[in-house]
Amino acid sequence: MVLSISSIGKMSTKKLRDLKKCRKSNLELALQDPTDLFHRMEKMTGKRQDPCVWDVFAAIIHEARTGKITVLWEWTAKRKDLQKSGKFKHVVE
What we know:
Blueprint: H1 10-18, H2 26-30, H3 34-45, H4 52-66, H5 76-85
Helix pairs in contact: 3-4
C-alpha cells in the first residue's frame, strides 16, 4: 500500500488517490514520474500547485523504487534545475 511509504503524509496520499494513481501498491507508484503527476494534479484541480508538491512526489517515487527514504528538500535542487532548463513548468496559470 502507498500508506507504507515513509515520506508520504495524509494529504499526499489523498492527492495521489484523487489522481487515480497508486491505489493498490508501491509498484504503481514506482512506475510514475513526478513531473507527470504534478501536471496531472494541476489539470485536475485547475489550480497552480506549489512547486514543493513536485519534491514530495519525487521523494515518494524514489522510496517506492529503491526503498531508500529521502526528505522532500533533497529533491528541491533537482526540481530547480528542471525549472531553469524549461523541463518543469506549471500547466495552469
